[in-house]
Design goal:
Number of helices of chain A: 21
Number of strands of chain A: 4
Distance between the termini of chain B: 23 Å
Distance between the termini of chain A: 26 Å
Shape of chain B: globular
Largest interface: A-B, 67 and 61 residues
Number of strands of chain B: 12
Largest sheet of chain B: 9 strands, mixed
Oligomer: heterodimer
Structural class of chain B: alpha/beta
Shape of chain A: globular
Chain lengths: 466, 415
Amino acid sequence: MPAPAEPQPQPIEQVDPAWAWASYEPSGSEGWSLDLAAHLYRRAGFSANWSQLSQALNDGCQGTVDRLLSGVPDPDGHYEQAAGMVETLLGSSSGQNLPAWWLHLMVHTPHPLLEKMTLFWHGHFATSAAKVTDPRLMHDQNRLLRAHALGRFGPLLEAMAKNPAMLLWLDSATNRKARPNENFAREVMELFSMGLGNYTERDIKEAARAFTGWEVKHGEFRFNRYEHDQRPKTVLGLTGPWNGDDVIRILLEQPATAQFLVKKVYRYLVSETEEPPETLLDPLAEGLRRNDYDMTWLVRTVVTSNLFYSPHAVRQRIKSPLELAVGLLRALEGTANMYVLAEELEALGQAVFFPPNVKGWDGGTTWINSSTLLGRANLVWGLVGREGRYNSKVDLVRLSALEGVDEPAALARRVVELLLGSTLPDEVYVQLTAVANEAGQANSDRRQRLARLVQAVATLPEFQLA
Amino acid sequence: MSTSRRQFLRAALGSTTLLSAGLSVPSFLSRSARAFDQSGKRGERILVVVQLSGGNDGLNTVIPYADDGYARNRVALRIAAEQVLKIDDKLGLHPQMQGCHKLQEEGRLAILQGTGYPNPDRSHFRSMDIWHTARPEVEDRRDGWLGRSIDHAGRRAGQDVPALHLGPNQLPLALVSRQTPVPSVDSLETFRLRTADGALPREALSKLAEAPRGGASTLLEFLCKSTLSAYASSEQVQQALEDDSSPVEYPGFTLARKLRQVAQLLDAGLSTRLYYVSLDGFDTHANQAEAHAALLNEFSSSLKVFMDDIAERGHLDRVAVLAFSEFGRRVRENASQGTDHGAAAPVFVAGGQVRGGPLGAHPSLTDLDNEGDLKFHTDFRQVYATLLDQWLGCSSQAVLGKQFDHVPLFKTVLG
């Protein structure tokens, strides 16, 4: 018998916004499930391991979201360790090692949502170490993103406008009174706040004048009043002797800024497939302004909403390469050589600290092509195979999720529960059971069988879905 | 192509004055060219797109060195007239473009001046999207112009992939098709499923992806289709690459490496007709001179060696290369020894059947648009329409949604 089809949801245009953002209350057969708990962990983190899934089932939706938002205590001092590690790395003169450092943090963090949102902001304020060659400045920016990741957007935008890595990245460091450089002024409107269509070329030219004299000296922000254009500027209809802070304030006052941000968060946390109508997002944008751009409010509202647990959201995103690799390692409670992993992720299109351009990663179906799918399959085997390329430490035999499960069909189902949270068509189960059923019962063979079973599940088209 | 054949063609067709005077090639010459085409290796016509990302400074690429306006607007960034590689008494190429200059002399490089579109957008992303989708009027990123040409041509199962993107980045929107996933390949060597050490073989993984999914979402269907296509094309490319020799020596540039792979693949008989490569870094807001010179050198020398390679391999007459950037740069340089985003710029088309030399006048340096940028006189969709109708044999009306006048890109009107 084929697996039951997913229910066809009503078109997104017809979804009632009041229902969409109301708090999700599980009930009866539609209730809180392994599938939804796994969904929450894929979005508000980097997938869950077996004990996290079990705890989430026990705690329910609200309790799990609370824990994800606050992060569990950090008894092993991962963040301290990471801070120590980066000091050593920064001793070397290039930024090449920064991706491995951040990957390590993401695989081991007790606060995955914090890293997930730091990654969101890295894509939003996408700055590349390919141009900003001082790794300390890139690391400072990463710390800044993390400090504000679940805080208020206003202070973050203000700080980014003065962030040395950003200033160097968008050439504002050479923004002179005589002939302003428009790069930062353009991107702050197009990509960091309002989005295209909400300003004119003239607004950009005027705003560029307001940012003149914002420089980097000895790795720090400096205001050079001799290079600052003191004359009045008209930005978005407001005239005054504006400086950069004034322009940021004007941008934050625009309703378009909250709308733009909400749309981006929707794509990151809810769905990449359907274009949400403005009326659906309006309550979130209004709420965000009412709450002084508080990102914790926004993230909590989204991941506890009815819409988030509906077919409009579940499996309506594609995992980024990083989400795939970090998620697999976290689910399997393993680790790997992060330098090699970072290289592989770069080949798959996602090198953190080296975004492709100032717009960040487009995500969605753009991650997927023949080459990256083969790369993703190779990556999976590299992580779980016996002589993987990553010196990975993934102990499938002692994994609590699989301990004591021997019967091939049960084993196949358990691996699917752990890695997908969902069910699969019967025919796929039959093939997976055959993989789990290969001859040999000794422990060493069990390791190889488990590795192949994990390979089979983690290369399924379903596993690419977030 | 053998040396003697190339010499014959150069002798017969090399008179660029005849061609640039706008006369069509006498029919006996075009017949001879076709005959040679048939004596060489067979295969369908191929289009290679080279994207110059970031907004190439067209004014310092194809330089109106004799125009006062050039010297007036470019002070720190001016290329001295004596350094310009002259095309005629008004126009020349950047000194680092010796390869392109030779191609131009050989009659294998067309330079389309003043190319752009109405109401130019100065955002990299929007403008690049416009070039990729060929839809300046609407924002619709569902497919690209080459992707639509693939959809329009239709595709039978079991054929080679219709297009390949060679590069580490995501698939260019231009190649996005609604029906056929186009592979994006960084290194052809890594375009291979690794199944050492007892992993499940490709057949087993393929079978898992092939199993029917009742009621699958659009996204899951896309992933199932793409996964199967990945396993299939991986095998094809590996077979095509078994012979790894080149008749010419390529320079060490990344762009050259990618173009060499294109030459290998098309010489191996892969029926893929569209190849796409990119060279990034043209967003020269500050300290432009050195960076721009290096980029033009990479572009120009890589293109020249590639053309020599495919000529040696006998494919010159079935290959055309299109090189474009999302916009040119502002006429007046900025205070950071750089240039800001502009509008119209030159586009290059190279190939054995191309009508060499400049096409159209250089845009005026005094009659500028409101932003201080060059005005276009040739819509890039005219270039696309010419390539689609005449080169790829694909209806431009179907792909572009309306009819655009052709530009005289080729020696004869091809069909």
